[in-house]
Amino acid sequence: MHRKTRKRFDGFGDARELTFSCHERRAFLSADRTREYFCDAVLAACERYPFELWAYVIMPEHIHMIIWPTVPGRVVSRVLQAIKQSVARRAIAFLRKHNPAGLEQLATGYAGKPLRFWLPGGGYDRNIMKRGTLLKAVDYIHNNPVRRGLVEAPGMWRWSSVHEWDEPGSGPIPIDLASFPVT
């Protein structure tokens, strides 16, 4: 099933593992500036929407996150929309001002949507109900930069929640481990 028409289950109480990618899987998130746009967008979404962030990694061309909506409803789609729109708008504004030629990388070739930062659709989204599955997903996320050969150990990648798991307050985005299931 195509990712844009895939059925999503907003079951209350489930953690959600999310992955979303840049347009044409280009490395738009390779600059610290753009990664900071993402961090700012997540912090703003945390203030605005009822969810807790349990894990994340910012890769050069995609994002992995695990969130836990704290109320029933369509929280996940709103969170994704807020984050993706904020990052895209800031990145495009920066390019328009400082590097107009860079906008060519975001060009779609379509008149109605001339620029695109993210792939369309919600990306990968899976409900996680069991703690063991959740721990495996966190480990997968934290080890993604190692598997890609970007670093030798998870803690060497700055743009990951692994730092918050090791020492709360040490990562670029705080996470909510107090709500993480212990059993």
Sequence-ordered SSE layout with sheet pairings:
Layout: E1 15-21, H1 32-48, E2 51-58, E3 62-69, H2 75-98, E4 124-128, H3 131-147, H4 162-166
Antiparallel strand pairs: 1-3, 1-4, 2-3
From the 3D structure, determine the CATH topology.
Answer: Alpha-Beta Plaits
CATH-derived architecture: 2-Layer Sandwich
The CATH class, by name, is Alpha Beta
Number of domains: 1
Largest sheet: 4 strands, antiparallel
Strand order of the largest sheet: 2-3-1-4
CATH superfamily: Transposase IS200-like
- Output the helix-strand order: EHEEHEHH
- Rounded to the nearest angstrom, the radius of gyration is 16 Å
* Number of separate helices: 4
**Taking all residues together, what is the mean pLDDT?**
92
Instruction: Compute the number of strand runs.
Output: 4
Structural class: alpha+beta
Task: Name the assembly state.
Answer: single chain
Q: Into which percentage range does the β-strand content fall?
A: 15-25%
Shape by Cα distribution: globular
How would you describe this structure to a colleague?
The chain has a single domain, classed as Alpha-Beta Plaits (2-Layer Sandwich), CATH 3.30.70.1290. The N and C termini lie far apart (34 Å). The protein is 34% helix and 15% strand. The chain is built from four helices and four strands; from the N terminus they run βαββαβαα. The protein is an alpha+beta fold. It has a four-stranded antiparallel β-sheet, with helices on both faces. The longest helix is centred in the middle third of the chain and has 24 residues, at 75-98. The protein has helices spanning 32-48, 75-98, 131-147, 162-166, and strands at 15-21, 51-58, 62-69, 124-128.
